[in-house]
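Recap from last week: sequence in, structure out.
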Amino acid sequence: MTKSASRPLTVWCLSLGCPKNRVDSEQLLGSLPGPVKSVRHIGRARLVFINTCGFIEPAVRESVRAVLDAVRAVSRRKRKPLLAVAGCMVGRYGEKTLGGELPEVDLWLPTALRGLWPAMLAGALHLPRPLKTGGRLLSTGPSYAWLKIAEGCRHHCAFCTIPSIRGGLRSVRADDILHEAKSLLGQGVRELALVAQDSASWGLDLGIRRGLPSLLERLAGLDGLVWLRLLYLYPGGVTPALLAFVREIGPPLLPYLDIPLQHAHPSILARMGRPFARNPRRVLDIVRAALPDASLRTTFIVGYPGETEKHFEYLCRFVEEARFQHVGVFAYQAEEGTKAAALPDQIPEGVREFRKKTLMEIQSGISEAHLAARVGERLPVLVDAAHPEWPGLHVGRVWFQAPEVDGITYVSGPGVSPGAIRECEIVGNSEYDLTALA
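Predicted structure tokens:
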């Protein structure tokens, strides 16, 4: 009997870390031979697949805990499923090291061999060789999907492990991106969120003259696309030409820009080896001059080696003055193998965590003020899912809320269902979330 005529391959999947990992997992499951069924209970799975994160030490610990939890869960079964562990933790430490610590894992799938994952899994499961390519088994519901446009990174920031794990910049070819985007929209997806380590670098390694704007131009014309969102733009790539393009093309491209600054003080930025002019205020000035109504997200690292109280106070004043819509804050982690880990003047953990809490408290007040100003407006809300506890209530987002990283909008009313986009009145807010009525 062929696999296609047999029961579906049942898979329990856990994807940790960034959306790029989520895309890798969805592509893998969509490329396995025969029908594949995702199950919520690990005890019903023939394949247990964990895609790990290895970017920072807390993420590594989370990945190890997830594997150990899966090992305990499957050990109680009479028929043991195949336990496969993939991703950045595997790429960072290697099968030899991890296999000695976690011998219960049946198959290790490093990032460097990602194109071979389907064949490696099919072999371990005694399935036919995969014939499908480019498919996706979506895990995000009907409203949005992540669209990865590049792999690796061309920058070498002193604190970052990504180039050593995932290699240098490798842009996905435009035709392949368009093909995948059309497939996702054909499944009913309304929003595509573009991700890469640095989306602004797309096409540089391919010699594409207009780079990212040329790709956005093609994507924006796709039928069925309601929102097109840009994430992870290194500040040096946010040029007047790119901003003018975003302004002129208009919908479905959203005036939403995720620009990870990481710090504001020139001395700390220099120690970080950040690849752009060391005055982030200039970046904000050109963005707001071109797109005065843009929604801006950024991330900061606090407690970086050598960060004094004066450096941190400078960063706090910058956040108070810049008034970003969304800010993520990370306490610095000294990662083995990075230049930053060898720097003098490492900051104690307690100080790092205190600075993180302090900066987030500043941003929470700014976020609440931004959202309070929206109460009374009518805005389209893209509905992601039904609320798991309250019948009739759904969770969605307005245009300035990116999936999974920003706040959400609680929405109810007629015609509200997952995948729908409804014009709603904003009736309330909290520090990070909105409430709306259709």
